[in-house]
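Data's thin. Show one?
=====
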Amino acid sequence: MAARLWIVALALAVLFLVDREVSVSAEKLVFWRMPICEHMAESPACPQTYDPVCGTDGVTYESECKLCLARIQHYQLLGAMVSLRQKPS
C-alpha cells in the first residue's frame, strides 16, 4: 500500500513539474490538468457533448465527464488528462 502511495505521489509531482501548456501547432494547444469530477457523485450522467480528452491510461474519451465515469469505475486510473482545444482567436 505504501509503495502505491509513493507511485501516485510521484506521478502527481511529475504532472505539476511539467510545463502546463505546450504548443502542438498553430491551430491547437495541449493542456495538462486534473479533471473536475466532484459533480459525478450527485449525477453520474454525461451530456452528449464532444470535447475529447486523453486519460493517463492512453484512452481518448469523448469528454471530461466520460473520463470521470472511467475514474469512478477503474480506481487505477489516476485521472490526469490532456485536452486538445482550439487556440483562441
Q: What stands out?
A: The longest helix spans residues 2-17. Residues 17-24 have pLDDT under 50 and may be disordered. The chain has one domain: 20-86.
